[in-house]
Amino acid sequence: MNILIYGINYAPELTGIGKYTGEMAEWMALQGHKVSVITSMPYYPEWETHKNYKGKWWHTEVINNVTVYRCPMYVPSKVTASKRIIHEFSFVLSSLVYWFKFFITQKTDIVITIAPPFHLGFISAFFAKLKKAKLITHIQDLQVDAARDLGMIKNKSFLSLMFKAEKYLLDKSSAVSTISEGMIKKVYAKKISKEKTILFPNWVDATIIYPLKKDLSLKKSFGFADQDRIILYSGNLGEKQGLEILIEAAQHFSTQKHVKFLIVGSGGGKAKLESAVEKRQLQNVYFKPLQPYLQLSSLLATADIHLVLQKKSAADLVMPSKLTSILAAGGYALVTALPGTSLYDIVAQHQMGQLVKPESSEDLVKAIDFALSNDLEPVKKNARNYAEKHLSKEYILKSFENELINR
Q: What residue range is the signal peptide (predicted)?
């Protein structure tokens, strides 16, 4: 098949949507498909264009047999709702250069739009109709729902317009895929038929991410002592995570000198967290940058306890991709989730983590106390077993490929 993927985020971004889109594209290319990607310069989660791409305009590169068409765009250093809108639309306008090229010269069988941002689909839908190609909308995050529920957009008329635009694009799609059962249900609620939806969860390569002993971790290189108990949050430092409770928990444990909180990552909320740590004069919170993907097993082995945090209002809008890596590494995760959400149900059913009430520092402290004083090995074994059985990269991508062929 001739596959065209359209999305803002792509490899070599180490986390989030770009990581998964990059792995999907490269896997499809390995199966013999001709894969092209229209995307931006990598910038996430730092919200800064990566060093090797600074100063570049439109250019093409080939990464692991995938032809990648890069477009310049506006990347704000401080993310606000208005700046994010400009950021997204600057990419849409910039990408038109390559859409004209594809319309004139490229044969296309399938167009895959990666959302968010959902409005990328307008160009994809128009192009797919002209080329008589299948249009697949893959939803990593229900952007409009999140904007409403997190209070990022409060104008009801504007929200109504956005929901109508989203529904139009979903109706125009040959199929709509998304990453969790909870998000599938929300797609159904938008009056999209069951026959049109595809469950396409985020995966993990359990041959690259796996349990390691502490002496192969990054514990010593990060400057921690053998007796230190490490509580790790790794990934995007953004608004959906509700990381304020992490700082409150750290303050509670500040008198226990061997309990250390390690924050690895970057994002729009990092400066706020650093300011909170400084204001409270906490000596038990450490910040480190994102680590290379091939060192992820070593990073995850550093932790005694992993934190998978998100706000109540983000329930079932986002399935935390960091959890897949923690499970593959056989880690013990404290997961904030409400009863009735797919995240809560799956963690409880497979006994592969400890569930915590979202946005409650008190409950988080209790959960950490429990984890520090109990045997965690049975839960860690369950985590690894689940990853091996249900999150196989090969199985998930092969299933999705079959859906693309048979639609």
A: none
